[in-house]
């Protein structure tokens, strides 16, 4: 009888890898959670009877099932309904000036005749190339509001998210998800465009059947006892960490009555236009001056994806620790689905880069979070799920590999 090994985070105990790409069934659905769900079982990417993941299944549907001409006609009709007649802003595009938001905002303005207001939730710490691309994005002919949250609070939430959830990116993800609907309410602009739905990469495939984001992603109760940030209730942030309640507002769900009055609709451009991250890069490079990094990203072979925030590499390292899925796996899996590389090439890239430690900005991010290197490794090692990790001769090793 095989040894029973505990699986943290509600993950499946049996590890399986997609037969088509390189993702495993340990990939969790990425959702913004305002409540503390503890160890409650969370949905992960689904596999069919042939061992193919839902993201690969949807990639096939994009090629064979979806009528993209009809979808584009829907987009044109949507834009026609909302297009400004007096020169005002008629849609909001959240983004950082990375390849995806650069593509989204630019094509809406210069191909479909919209007048977008771009809004940016600032990264924790800009990289040089990230700031450069952000400036190029604006200077390609777009208006922008850069929203930078309270630095003292953001550092605290980042540290708490790392120590309690091993998820230092959570405060950024919450802000990024909320900023579009929030500015819709503030400026009374009903139409919001994000790029692709995360169902492209493994969330519930049925989410791709609708063009809009479910309001539950950005609207919910603002009760301070049931809202959690960084694994701590909003009430405790106020009482135990001396957080001013007013400073929490950018991270709190939006009052749905305001958005319903405005008529806010949050759409995914990837529902209407066939989404391909590499093609977005080519478009952004040509039209907005987007530039790749001069060196590959730590933990992967890529030079153009998620390169604007110095904490990005650490975020992907934590997914490697928690789920056995590093940055190279994410990058290679989507490039297999988009027929840029073969599965054999993807396996080799995962083997070479997935476990690489992000050392370049490591000490800078430790200082940002206000923790020691000793505390960092304590959190990391406690986060290793027994069903994924084992110690061999005093060193940690994954039990399962796609290769």
Q: Assess the beta-strand content as a share of residues.
A: 5-15%
Number of E strands = 9
Main sheet attributes: strand count, strand direction, barrel closure: 3 strands, parallel
Secondary-structure element series:
HHEHEHEHHEEEHHEHHHHHHHEE
Q: What is the spatial order of strands in the main beta sheet?
A: 1-2-3
Secondary-structure blueprint of this entry?
Layout (H helix, E strand, L loop, with lengths): L53 H11 L3 H15 L8 E4 L4 H12 L5 E6 L6 H12 L3 E5 L3 H15 L4 H18 L3 E4 L33 E2 L2 E2 H7 L15 H7 L2 E4 H4 L4 H11 L24 H12 L3 H11 L5 H11 L8 H8 L3 H10 L6 E4 L2 E4 L5
Parallel strand pairs: 1-2, 2-3, 4-7
Antiparallel strand pairs: 5-6, 8-9
Protein name: LPS biosynthesis protein PseA
Organism: Geomonas paludis
InterPro entries: N-acetyl_sugar_amidoTrfase (IPR020022)
Any overview of this molecule?
It contains 15 helices and nine strands. It is mainly alpha-helical and 403 residues long. The chain has a domain at 68-272: Rossmann fold (3-Layer(aba) Sandwich). The protein has a three-stranded parallel beta sheet. The chain has a two-stranded parallel sheet with strand order 4-7. Strands 5-6 form a two-stranded antiparallel sheet. The model is unreliable at 31-40 (pLDDT under 50).
Outline of the structure:
The chain is mainly alpha-helical and 403 residues long. The protein has helices spanning 54-64, 68-82, 99-110, 128-139, 151-165, 170-187, 234-240, 256-262, 269-272, 277-287, 312-323, 327-337, 343-353, 362-369, 373-382; strands at residues 91-94, 116-121, 143-147, 191-194, 228-229, 232-233, 265-268, 389-392, 395-398. It has a domain at 68-272: Rossmann fold, CATH 3.40.50.
């Amino acid at each position: 009888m095989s040894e029973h090994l505990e699986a943290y985070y509600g993950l499946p105990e049996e590890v399986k890898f997609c037969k088509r790409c390189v993702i495993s069934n340990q990939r969790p659905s990425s959702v913004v959670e305002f409540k503390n769900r503890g160890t409650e079982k969370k949905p992960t990417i689904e596999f069919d009877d042939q061992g193919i993941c839902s993201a690969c299944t949807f990639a096939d549907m994009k090629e064979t099932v979806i009528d993209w001409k009809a979808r584009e006609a829907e987009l044109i009709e949507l834009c026609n309904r909302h297009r400004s007649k007096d020169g005002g802003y008629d849609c909001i595009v959240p983004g950082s000036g990375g390849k995806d938001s650069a593509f989204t905002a630019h094509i809406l303005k210069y191909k479909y005749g919209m007048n977008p207001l771009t809004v940016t939730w600032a990264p924790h710490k800009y990289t040089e190339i990230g700031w450069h691309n952000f400036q190029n994005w604006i200077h390609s002919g777009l208006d922008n509001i850069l929203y930078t949250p309270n630095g003292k609070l953001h550092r605290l939430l980042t540290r708490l998210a790392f120590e309690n959830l091993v998820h230092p990116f959570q405060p950024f993800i919450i802000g990024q998800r909320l900023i579009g609907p929030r500015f819709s309410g503030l400026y009374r602009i009903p139409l919001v465009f994000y790029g692709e739905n995360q169902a492209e990469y493994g969330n519930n495939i049925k989410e791709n059947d609708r063009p809009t984001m479910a309001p539950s992603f950005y609207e919910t109760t603002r009760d301070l006892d049931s809202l959690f940030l960084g694994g701590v209730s909003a009430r405790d942030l106020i009482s135990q960490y001396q957080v001013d309640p007013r400073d929490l507002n950018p991270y709190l769900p939006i009052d749905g009555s305001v958005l319903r009055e405005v008529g806010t609709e949050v759409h995914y451009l990837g529902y209407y236009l066939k989404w391909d991250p590499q093609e977005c890069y080519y478009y952004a490079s040509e039209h907005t001056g987007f530039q790749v990094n001069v060196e590959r990203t730590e933990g992967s072979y890529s030079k153009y994806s998620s390169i604007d925030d110095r904490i990005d590499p650490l975020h992907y390292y934590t997914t490697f620790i928690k789920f056995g899925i590093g940055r190279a796996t994410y990058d290679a899996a989507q490039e297999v689905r988009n027929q840029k590389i073969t599965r054999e090439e993807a396996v080799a890239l995962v083997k070479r880069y997935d476990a690489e430690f992000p050392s370049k900005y490591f000490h800078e991010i430790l200082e940002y979070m206000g923790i020691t290197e000793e505390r960092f490794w304590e959190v990391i090692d406690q986060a290793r799920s027994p069903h994924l990790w084992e110690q061999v001769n005093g060193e940690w090793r994954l039990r399962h590999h796609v290769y």
